[in-house]
Amino acid sequence: MNWEVFRAYDIRGIYPTDIDEEAYYRIAKAYVYLFKPKTMVVGMDARSSSPPLKASLIKGFLDAGVDIVDIGEITTDMLYYAVGASSDYSGGVVVSASHNPKEYNGMKMVREKATAISSDTGLFDIRDVLKAGKDAEVTSDKKGTCTERDVLDDYLAHVLKSIDRSRIKQFTFVGNANFGYVCRPARKLAETLGLNLIPLNFEPDGSFPKGPPDPMLPGNRTETEALIREKGAPFGVAWDADADRAMFFDEKGEFISGAYITALLADILLTKYGSDNTIIFDPRVTWPTLDTVQRKGGRPIISKGGHAFMKDRMRRENGLFAGELSGHYYFRENFYADNGVIPFLLVLEHLSTHDKPFSEIMAQYQAGHYMSGELNYKVKDVKAVIEKVNETFHGKGTEDFTDGYSLETPEWRFNIRGSNTEPLLRLNIETRKPELVDQTRKEIEAIINA
Questions:
Q1: How far apart are CA 3 and CA 272, in angstroms?
Q2: Pairing of strands 146-148, 172-176
Q3: How far apart are CA 16 and CA 406, in angstroms?
Q4: Cα separation of 388 and 390, whole Å?
Q5: Cα–Cα distance for residue pair 280/329, rounded to 1 Å
Q6: Active-site residues: which are they?
Q7: Closest CA to 180 of 14, 420, 20, 341
Q8: Which domains are present in the chain?
Q9: Distance between CA atoms of 412 and 286, rounded to whole angstroms?
Q10: Is the Cβ–Cβ distance between 51 and 73 less than 8 Å?
């Protein structure tokens, strides 16, 4: 096993060179060594390697005397629902590498009530148990039992509580499932709500024939954008392969950044639940959400990005909602966990009750705000580059180290950080004037490329 598969908030590597069936078996034993679960929920994404890896994971738990509830072919947020909604389960694991290319696999793990396991709350402890070989100490005279459960209908009933179904208009929309299992809940929701779904990449295929299943990549958006324009659909939504992220497109087929969708959802939820609530967001792009939350009278908090860290902060603050530039959206009424379908439903309800095109609705969050989009760079030493940027810009504005390095002035702001899921340096710039985006980018790129 390559120990580098243990990331900040999940396990992820190339199959079978970095991580294989034996690794999954041992990880199950290590989980038992640390957390002493009685019943675990297990599911998997559509990747070709997921069935054998899930089987090894289950065997590890069963051999340790732990009972298993196998919920089969799921989206990641269906695992969070299954564990969060029941006091009968000690935790859960989904076999998934999210949006990574087809050769990857991994897992996301939670404890009871869908409490995230990150590098700070047990993930590195699991790694260290394995390094020390302590997983071999986990034995049981009695094997666990394995039962199967279909959670789809209960999951749909749960997410539908987030909206008033009577307000929904019979919209046409483009839905891109990126060959993942979100096709099942999305189809059923469309039928339940009387929507006209125009499906794209709706047949599960773990080989991901059109490339990495990540709608954040500009090249992966073109199909969705073109189909919206061709069909004249009022909006579109694309999910990544495990569907814990949702990304939106307006009626012109234009992609809407997660920075603006976070502001929109914060506005919607503060209206629904009252201004006396906390909204949490990551430091990559902050101004649209910060301005919205302050206008509504809510309490804004900037937190370290990454699903496990965001969920931990949500619980500590009892946050109403949290959003990330990457399209992860978290809800108090969803066990403080991220969900890819609830944002779709909230946007659908908002469009149904506002007689305006999606682009016009979003204009209030975008006006006077300009940004670079997430720029990615391959560098030899991420930490050294960030330190050099810090040295160069020190004293030029307000600094923040919540996640990477951020610097803010009245006219421009940037965040530079290392990716937690890929070997990349990531830069985001936001400004009050359009020309400042390129000006700031060039200054920083001169340091990166030096």
A1: 45
A2: unpaired
A3: 37
A4: 5
A5: 10
A6: 98
A7: 341
A8: 3-150 (3.40.120.10), 154-255 (3.40.120.10), 258-366 (3.40.120.10), 370-448 (3.30.310.50)
A9: 11
A10: no
Strands 235-239 and 425-431 come out as unpaired
DSSP annotation string for 26-62:
HHHHHHHHHH--SEEEEEE-S-TTHHHHHHHHHHHHH
The DSSP secondary-structure symbol of 8 reads S
Cβ of 217: how many Cβ atoms within 10 Å? 12
Interatomic CA distance for residues 344 and 292, integer angstroms = 20
| Amino acid making up residue 394 | H
pTM of the predicted protein model: 0.96
* Cα Rg, the chain, nearest whole Å: 22
DSSP line for 114-147: G-B--TTTTHHHHHHHHHTTGGGG---SS---EE
Which residues touch 325 (CB under 8 Å, ≥6 apart)? 257, 258, 259, 262, 282, 284, 285, 305, 374, 428
Nearest C-alpha neighbor of 74 from the set 164, 170, 154: 154
Alpha carbon distance 315, 332 (integer Å):
8
Residue the block writes with tokens 């990449």 = 201
- How many residues are recorded in the chain? 450
Going by DSSP bridges, is the β-strand pair 329-331/321-323 parallel, antiparallel, or unpaired?
antiparallel
The type of residue at 245 is R
- Give the span between the Cα atoms of 397 and 409, in whole angstroms: 5
Helix residue ranges, H only, 170-286: 183-193, 222-231, 258-273
Q: Which two tokens stand for residue 440?
A: 């700031």
Q: For residue 287, which amino acid is it?
A: W
Taking only the tens of pLDDT, the chain with its 450 residues reads 999 999 988 999 999 999 999 999 999 999 999 999 999 999 999 999 999 999 999 999 999 999 999 999 999 999 999 999 999 999 999 999 999 999 999 999 999 999 999 998 999 999 999 999 999 999 999 999 999 999 999 999 999 999 999 999 999 999 999 999 999 999 999 999 999 999 999 999 999 999 999 999 999 999 999 999 999 999 999 999 999 999 999 999 999 999 999 999 999 999 999 999 999 999 999 999 999 999 999 999 999 988 888 999 999 999 999 999 999 999 999 999 999 999 999 999 999 999 999 999 999 999 999 999 999 999 999 999 999 999 999 999 999 999 999 999 999 999 999 987 677 899 999 999 999 999 999 999 999 998
- State the distance between the two ends of the chain, measured CA to CA, in whole angstroms: 35
| HEC-encoded secondary structure of 383-436 | HHHHHHHHHHHCCCCEEECCCCEEEECCCEEEEEEECCCCCCEEEEEEECCCHH
Task: Please report the sign of the dihedral spanned by the C-alpha atoms of residue 239, residue 283, residue 315, residue 5.
Answer: positive
